[in-house]
Amino acid sequence: MAKYRCTVCGFIYDPEVGDPDGGIAAGTAFEDIPEDWVCPMCGVSKDMFEKVEE
Predict the structure, then answer these.
(1) CA geometry: angle 23, 25, 29, nearest 5 deg
(2) Backbone conformation region of residue 10, classed left if phi is above 0, alpha if psi is from -120 to 50, else beta
(3) How many helices (H) and strands (E) does the chain have?
(4) Of 6, 8, 26, 53, which one has the fewest beta carbons inside 10 Å?
């Protein structure tokens, strides 16, 4: 699964880790995160993330 980076603060969403504090379980693909989820570091919306090319 692809990782995604916040274009504002640089936070990396790693689907293998998820966002336990934000209610996102490990193993959750970025596409499956609810639309109202926000970056845990800076609070911007999901549409401010870009796919990390590996």
Answers:
(1) 110
(2) left
(3) 0, 3
(4) 53
CA distance 6 to 38: 10
- What is the distance between the alpha carbons of residues 16 and 26, in angstroms, rounded to a whole number? 5
Of 42, 32, 23, residue with least CA distance to 12: 42
What does the CA dihedral 25, 28, 32, 36 come to, rounded to 10 degrees?
40
pTM, two decimal places: 0.93
| The token pair that represents 47 in the structure block | 């549409």
18-30 pLDDT, tens digit each: 999 999 999 999 9
The 49-51 sheet, strands edge to edge: 12-13, 4-6, 49-51
